[in-house]
Amino acid sequence: MRAADFPYLSGPTPLALAHRGGALLPDNVGLENTLGAFRRARALGYRHLETDAHVTADGEVVAFHDDSLDRVTDAEGRIADLPWSEVSQARVGGVEPVPRLADLLEEMPDALLNIDVKADAALEPTVEVLRRHGAVERVCIGSFSERRVRAARRALGPRLATAAGPVGTAALRFTPDVVARVLHTPAPVLQVPAHHRVAGRVVELVTPGFVRRAHAAGKQVHVWFHSWSVEDAPEYHRLLDLGVDGVVADRIDVLADVLAERGRPLTGGAVG
């Protein structure tokens, strides 16, 4: 199947994805992956939202980046070791509760979610949440673990959009046999960092040839940014000029302005 055959990917491109709700939007700083952050992204016109999935000790799937609550909440401990009754009391930035994946699906029934499954234990509960909410065609599943992505595809069937992970795509520029293998996987999306560090140097991964090969294979290219990457309006313009199909942005206000400048304003769905 080609990317256009998946409901999650069938809209006009480029797609604008709010990374953790848009972690560097001024009103979202310190409040990533909260319902408040996602609401603010929706208010800017974002329909595609990127989030992460962890699971509590008693099986609740939460939208949260790290396994530990310590970094961004007023609580401590590993999510995997705590029951939902305790995780639900934590406040991101001291203000916002940690949301369940089910909360996000229920509150925003027309949102399209890119979900990074962060732990093996989170996979089966995430699958069950998506089944229970009839949300298979609303999501794209990615992970640093290709094994998790394959397992999700087996569990949820051929209508599930999946993304080839960074390990495979990072090698895409350098090894012909890896190019062939990744481009012929069932994953309709290649999720690629704009740049990657290889042997101490920064390498540009997203090139005209890279995008051309992906499109020839019927796949979309979605670009994300490392914390050390330059993410600004000129970089967004550069990537869009290369023909990328999606941008996973932290600076969602800046990306919205860039898209409007290019005559592709956000409308609450795919960029059109």
Automatic annotation (TrEMBL):
GO biological-process terms attached to the record: lipid metabolic process
Residue ranges of every copy of the GP-PDE domain listed in the record: 14-259
SUPFAM superfamilies per the UniProt record, alphabetical: PLC-like phosphodiesterases (SSF51695)
One annotated GO molecular function: phosphoric diester hydrolase activity
A matching Pfam family: GDPD
Protein name: Glycerophosphodiester phosphodiesterase
Organism: Phycicoccus avicenniae
